[in-house]
Amino acid sequence: MNNFSYFRATSVQDAVQRASSDREAMFIAGGTNLVDRMKAFLDEPSQLIDISRLQMQRIEPIAGGGLRIGGLVSNTAVADHPDIRRNYPMLSRAILSGASQQIRNVASVGGNILQRTRCPYYYDTAFPCNKREPGSGCPAATGINRMHAILGASNQCVAVHPSDMAVAMAALDAMVEVEGAKGKRQIPFTDFHRLPGDTPQQDTNLEPGEMITAVVLPPLPFAQSGVYLKLRDRASYSFALVSVAAAIELAGDRIKDVRLAMGGVAHKPWRPTEAEQFLIGKPADAATFQQAAEMALQGAKPLTHNSFKVELAKRAIKRSLAVSAKGGGVA
Ligand code: SF4
After folding, report:
1. pLDDT digits (tens, 9 = 90+) for 234-258
2. Is the full-model pTM beyond 0.90?
3. Any idea where the domains of the chain sit in the sequence?
4. Which CATH topology does 222-325 take?
5. Can you tell me the distance from the alpha carbon of 277 to that of 272, in angstroms, rounded to the nearest whole number?
6. Looking at ligand 1, which atom is closest to the CA of residue 128?
7. Which of 42, 115, 116, 121 should be mutated for ligand 1, with most atoms under 8 A from CB?
8. Which of 166, 182, 190, 191 has the most CB atoms less than 10 A away?
């Protein structure tokens, strides 16, 4: 670990001004991913700007419905909040399916969104890695790539985003509130993370020095029937091979509206929007769900060791849609 200075911010403006004037500075809140990366020499900040005591720790209703979740609310507090459990159960279940209770107690919402891939080559500095050192190569593309992407990858990087929470937020059409030296703005959740393309070192569309101050969940009444299905190698403390967040609104036996997002398959939470459009107006039955699943995976390009993810993802989509169509619960 390198030498760095430590600064405890007393306001958001204070923190973003400091971060904007020093491109090597980094924000720290819970530190559950950043400290690991620093210990592995992946991040070597000049200074850590501690934002953990800033006033961004509330979950509050917003005018017209929906909730505003402060960027420093712990993962546990989000998952346990009664309004989230009742109105956005896929978000609560997604969070509870990730990490451990101890980590969720200190991990912040902003930090969860900003966590980086768990590609083992990225963490092992004995290997080259385009995300760590642009232009050095991607050993995962031809190496052990069982956990890697099947959608949206590039020849520069085949990593997946590790967050469960982010998959649910993408499905719920959340907005990310950020603040930087130029002021405040909102970014649709589905535009927040990037596909790797030629710049795999950039995970998000944040500008330098910008901080996540909140996530806004819009009102979505049928999200009460939402589900989160995570398929993984062991039942706890394991990243998703494939996950699906789904919610269906029915009008009689037909689908009136739907939200669908996938995790463990791409560099960002993946919204199969064509499949969503296809579902609207169709009967909520197994044949429709099968067709939607085929459509969601039609662009999949599996690697040497992860072709199983294609069929796994299709089955996860079918099951998630079927459970949500019956009112939700555990998928
Ligand atoms: Fe690095 Fe991405 Fe390749 Fe992993 S998949 S080794 S993170 S470039």
Report:
1. 999 999 999 999 999 999 999 999 9
2. yes
3. 222-325
4. Enolase-like; domain 1 (3.30.390)
5. 9
6. 6
7. 121
8. 166
